[in-house]
Amino acid sequence: MTHRVAVIGDALIDIVDGRQIPGGAAFNVAVGLAKLGADVDLITMLADDEPGRALLRHAAEHGVRVHATDAPHGTATATATRVGESMEYVFNEAGRKRFFDVASKAAVIAEADCVVVSCVPLESDAQTEALQALQRMPIPFVLDANPRPGYLRDNDPATVAAFAANLRRLAAAATMLKLSDEDTRLLFELEPHDAAEQLLAAGLEVALVTEGPAGASIRTASLHEQRPIAHMDAPIVDTIGAGDATNATLALALLDEQPWGEALERAMLVAAATCRAPGGELQLP
């Protein structure tokens, strides 16, 4: 069965070692879902400028329908730098001031079998309330917290606290929430599995915890499955998009009602393959 998925969130141009690569967490998830066989609509901010047109062309190549909301500051870009086993990002004004007008795309969302949200400004009460309205729909709601220091005013305490509080509000009614170990330490000053347990107790159905080279886990009220990252002989090029590839693979597994252990193993293979190519586009092993 082909699932129709509405993805909401950021699309931008990643600038990596001087190369310009289509990316953004939600864009990566949308393209990844399409490569995995889903029918995908992407609701994002794009301007009529060269970065925006490049993103539209790339989305069209993969069959992703893009529904652009207003982008008064242009299309977002992010300059990525490898720091240890992670990447750090510096965003332009368009990225820092992102906001996704989901109400204007209600007709598109109403056709979806699932909503996947990634890298949206949860420090904004208005953005959070717009997403809460979608949670009243009788379809799965998947959320990737994806806070980044460059979006959170370099970890301004008040901004981080607002983001964390609104994340808790959405998580309580979410079907699946993706959290990385970096996310939980930044937002809650907690280790990832401690944060997952708290959020599950508050109403979250499924917690997807990613821990970089240590792999990923699925936690529910009654289940804990963990898998290591898959080994591949080819060298790692960068880690951009590994979490997005994991999120796309497991969102589709949720819709297909796959056993979580099998789905995690598949996701770790896909994430490992994604790390063997430049940029954030999901790669099939």
UniProtKB/TrEMBL annotation:
Domain spans labelled Carbohydrate kinase PfkB: 17-281
Keyword Kinase attached: yes
Enzyme Commission code: 2.7.1.4
GO molecular function: ATP binding; fructokinase activity
InterPro entries: PfkB_Carbo_kinase, PfkB_dom, Ribokinase-like
Domain of life: Bacteria
Pfam families reported for this sequence: PfkB
Keywords: ATP-binding, Kinase, Nucleotide-binding, Transferase
Enzyme class (EC, first level): transferase
PANTHER family reported in the protein's UniProt record: HEXOKINASE FAMILY MEMBER, PSEUDOURIDINE KINASE-RELATED
Family, per entry: Belongs to the carbohydrate kinase PfkB family.
Protein name, UniProt field: Fructokinase
